[in-house]
Amino acid sequence: MGRNIHDIFVIGGGINGCGIARDAVGRGYSVALAEMNDFASGTSSGATKLIHGGLRYLEHYEFRLVRESLMEREILWAMAPHIIWPLRFVLPYHKGGIRPAWLIRLGLFLYDHLGGRKLLPPTSVLDMRRDPAGKPLKALFSKAFEYSDGWVDDARMVVLNARDAADKGALVMPRTKVVSARRENGLWHIETTDTVSGRTDSYQARMLVNAAGPWVDHVIRSAFGQNEAHHVRLVQGSHIVVKKKFDDVRAYFFQNPDNRIIFAIPYEGDFTLIGTTDRDYTADPRDVRISEEETVYLCNAASEYFKEPVRPEDIVWTYSAVRPLYDDGASKAQEATRDYVLKLEGEGDAAPLLNVFGGKLTTYRRLSEHALEKIGAAIGAKGAPWTAKSHLPGGDFPVRGYEAQVDKLRRRYSFLADPLARRLVRRYGTKAELLLGNASGIDDLGRLFGGDLYEAEVTYLVEHEWARHAEDVLWRRTKDGLRLSKEQAKSLEEYMAAMPAMAG
């Protein structure tokens, strides 16, 4: 059946689609968004999970992208201090290495001064023979540079953008596939299918935004019937997670002999995240998996630095995703631009279409603002930019207020163990109190599924964050999959199958 005419219909529930929907509805546009799977089920949950300027992009002269990224770090940190926080990176150096010391110093000087850094500390030089950061590394590395960037829970950033868009009035529809979109009488007529129930629906919109990530060309070909869509270069990035390799809270930036870099990052308290790879990908993005070649590459690259080698048998989890880079004709996957490109189509009375190519987590907010500039030019401007001073749900506390927020939660819920209180604030910020409600003891949180995942948290994720399956909870809304056994995960799936889908 037909629906009211929306100003904007967004295809894609990754960071770009959810960011555009949130920005647009906050300016007064009527917005609908359809995602064929769960939010952040593709590229947006497969990142290295950094809010960073992209130090290595300086080598490819992407100064605009780096400057914009550096400026965004502290803006995003203030927007969501529960899921984003500063992280110091240690870049080990030895004489005769891949890049000379003067080049690294120059890059870090630009890094410190290009993007209006205010709160993050500047670059420093470390004596690795004395600094604790040198302890897990080979003695070859006697010197290092230390600089600032940020960490983000990538999948949570996506779902919080979707949640805020819905709270502001957007129609947000996960597990809804757009099967066709056609222009008629100055409007887009969009047909969708609910991938769970099979129900079909139709919508009308004045403008369509294609933010389908790796599937952006597929949408152009299948939904719009344009067979000559070849705008995206798919590049696979894979990561491995191993048991904790070092106790330091800082991360490492490793330079490889092939001129590529990898990170080794403290992860979820008990683990180390190592990645990423960069290689062209031509298969279906739904089938992306880490290859044996990539696994060996990451283990060998990290082992060049750590005293204790990283072996395939040390791996407890892997993840892999496909980055939809704009195809600029670069010869190597790692040289393809990480910048985003927005292409507006539709002349005269034809309903406009905005295709979104590329992008990265750090610049999603600015990408959204630039998209709204094009949307305003196409269908009329509404409202002014507003997201720079906003908060994502749960992030309405001071940028350096995480510890105080943990203390506040533990004062109200004295039965919470410190690790659980910390995890709840990291995931939900001020919304942790909504999750816990009137609980006066640990038994009030209901069934324990494993680790410290209780029924109350699962219920919250179903009711407020569109979680429907165990995978949604264990690997996107949280990372509790690292702590639950296969039997416990199966038990959670059975429990959730009996629950009604409630988020809206």
UniProtKB/TrEMBL annotation:
Protein name listed in UniProt: Glycerol-3-phosphate dehydrogenase
Statement: the UniProt record of this protein carries the keyword Oxidoreductase: yes
FAD dependent oxidoreductase domain sequence ranges: 7-335
UniProt xrefs under Pfam families: DAO, DAO_C
Keywords: FAD, Flavoprotein, Oxidoreductase
Alphabetized Gene3D superfamilies for the sequence: 6.10.250.1890, Alpha-glycerophosphate oxidase, cap domain, D-Amino Acid Oxidase, subunit A, domain 2, FAD/NAD(P)-binding domain
Names of the cofactor(s): FAD
Organism of provenance: Rhizobium esperanzae
E.C. code: 1.1.5.3
Similarity field: Belongs to the FAD-dependent glycerol-3-phosphate dehydrogenase family.
Reaction(s) this enzyme catalyzes, per UniProt: a quinone + sn-glycerol 3-phosphate = dihydroxyacetone phosphate + a quinol
GO molecular function: glycerol-3-phosphate dehydrogenase (quinone) activity
UniProt lineage: Bacteria, Pseudomonadati, Pseudomonadota, Alphaproteobacteria, Hyphomicrobiales
